[in-house]
Every structure is written in structure tokens, then in C-alpha cells.
């Protein structure tokens, strides 16, 4: 099981910090074969999805409902040990106009914490509409967080083709 590295703040989000924002209008080139975990961040629930760059498919994994931050990160550490991802993807909540909001700051903070604790590269991906799309896919009022995480991860995988 990989041990989390001590949490350390990143100076800013961008190149060289371990956390980058993926501009879907100009996606990066395809990289090496990677296993990826993605997160749909929420203050009460955390959707998790799994995918890889070989199949270029993402699937819902689980919803973390741990009531404390320590509980969430303990579960994340277990998922990292189980799946051994090379990269993490976090949904970035933007307004419909594409500007940042309070939830964007929380998502960036979570991405920075993931990078600081576990030392893995983290990519932020625009998550606009992912929860509504997930609800439409489910066709019910069941919790959609893990499906939303899969949609966010699929957007990343599609962008790097």
C-alpha cells in the first residue's frame, strides 16, 4: 500500500505544480499507458471512477461517504493501493459561463491535497453538466456522484486521443 506523502501546499495551479487544468479545446497528446482514478468532489460525497488509457473507457467505482476528511483520505489511500493509478483526475466546478466560483476553489484545494498527500499528478477537468448527464444516464434519483466522476474521466480520456 503506498504511504501518503506529507501534505504540502502547492504554490499555484499550473505547469510544474503537479496539478494542471486540462483545456479541452487544446488537449494534450496521448501519453503512456496509465490507470486513472477520477473524483467528483463534493463536501458531503465524493464520487470515484476508474479508467485507463489503453481501453479509453471510464466506469463508476464508488461513492465515498466518510463524514471526516481523514476518513475520506483513508479510503482514497486504500483505493490508490488497490488500483495503483499513475494519475488522478478531479472535476473542476465552473459556472455555466465557464468562470470559477466558490466550488472551484474547493475542488482546486482537494486536487492540491491529493497531490500533496500522495505525490501523484492531478489533472483538473471542467465538470459542467456532469451531474445532470449522470442523472439522465441513471434514469432515477439515485446518487449520481460515481457516474458523474466517470463522465469527468471519460471527458479527459476523449480529450487526450
Question: How are the secondary structure elements laid out?
Answer:
Blueprint: E1 19-21, E2 35-41, E3 46-52, E4 57-64, H1 69-83, E5 87-92, H2 102-118, E6 122-126, H3 130-138, H4 145-159
Parallel strand pairs: 1-6, 2-5, 5-6
Antiparallel strand pairs: 2-3, 3-4
Helix pairs in contact: 3-4
What key phrases describe this protein's structure?
161 residues; alpha/beta; Nucleotidyltransferase, domain 5; 6-stranded mixed β-sheet; 35% helix; globular; disordered N terminus
Structure in words:
With 161 residues, the protein is of the alpha/beta class. It has a single domain, classed as YqgF/RNase H-like domain (Nucleotidyltransferase, domain 5). It is 35% helix and 22% strand. The chain is built from four helices and six strands. The chain has helices spanning 69-83, 102-118, 130-138, 145-159; strands spanning 19-21, 35-41, 46-52, 57-64, 87-92, 122-126. Strands 1-6-5-2-3-4 form a six-stranded mixed β-sheet, sandwiched between helices. α2 links the parallel β5 and β6 (122-126). α3 packs across α4. The longest helix has 17 residues, at 102-118. Mean pLDDT is 81; it is low at 1-18 and 24-29.
Percent of residues in β-strands: 15-25%
Name of the top-level CATH class? Alpha Beta
Q: Which CATH architecture is right? A: 2-Layer Sandwich
Tell me the total number of β-strands.
6
Query: Strand order within the widest sheet?
Result: 1-6-5-2-3-4
In short:
35% of the residues lie in helices and 22% in strands.
Amino acid at each position: 500500500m503506498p504511504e501518503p506523502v506529507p501534505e504540502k501546499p502547492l504554490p499555484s495551479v499550473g505547469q510544474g505544480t503537479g496539478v494542471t487544468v486540462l483545456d479541452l479545446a487544446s488537449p494534450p497528446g496521448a501519453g503512456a499507458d496509465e490507470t486513472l482514478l477520477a473524483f467528483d468532489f463534493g463536501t458531503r460525497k465524493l464520487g470515484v471512477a476508474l479508467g485507463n488509457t489503453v481501453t479509453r473507457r471510464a466506469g463508476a467505482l464508488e461513492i465515498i461517504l466518510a463524514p471526516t476528511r481523514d476518513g475520506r483520505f483513508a479510503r482514497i489511500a486504500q483505493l490508490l493501493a488497490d488500483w495503483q493509478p499513475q494519475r488522478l483526475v478531479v472535476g473542476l466546478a465552473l459556472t455555466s459561463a465557464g468562470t470559477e466560483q466558490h466550488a472551484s476553489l474547493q475542488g482546486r484545494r482537494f486536487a492540491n491535497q491529493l497531490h500533496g498527500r500522495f505525490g501523484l499528478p492531478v489533472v483538473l477537468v471542467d465538470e459542467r453538466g456532469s451531474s445532470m448527464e449522470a442523472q439522465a444516464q441513471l434514469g432515477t434519483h439515485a446518487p449520481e456522484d460515481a457516474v458523474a466522476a466517470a463522465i469527468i474521466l471519460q471527458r479527459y480520456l476523449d480529450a487526450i486521443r
